[in-house]
User: Fold this.
Amino acid sequence: MYFKFDERTPLYLQIADQIESAILKGIYKKGQQIPSTTEISKEYRINPATVLKGMNILVEKNLIEKKRGLGMFVTQNSQDEILEDRQATFYQDYVLKTVEVAKELNLSLEELQELIERGYQND
Assistant:
């Protein structure tokens, strides 16, 4: 995990995002225990309450679950839910804005598709 302490995004949101990304990438698999609040707070020198606040966001989203006396665990459908949510966000934040700009530039759908294909080929 990497945190930007001077960024505008609050640390607890960065923590939630970092854990969510790790679940999406398969670093934390369904049913697997994630590091404890104490482990994360000690390793990154972050207040345990801040770490817990970030984890509670994921609990509310049903991406991780608390097992009393055992810790926090990745829920069974979390990876699929994160992927679905991020795809919807991608559509809203990038696709719709890209189409809007393409229309402003008088690009046809075919021209936009060609640009996207060129972008894929540059990987």
About this structure: The mean pLDDT is 93.
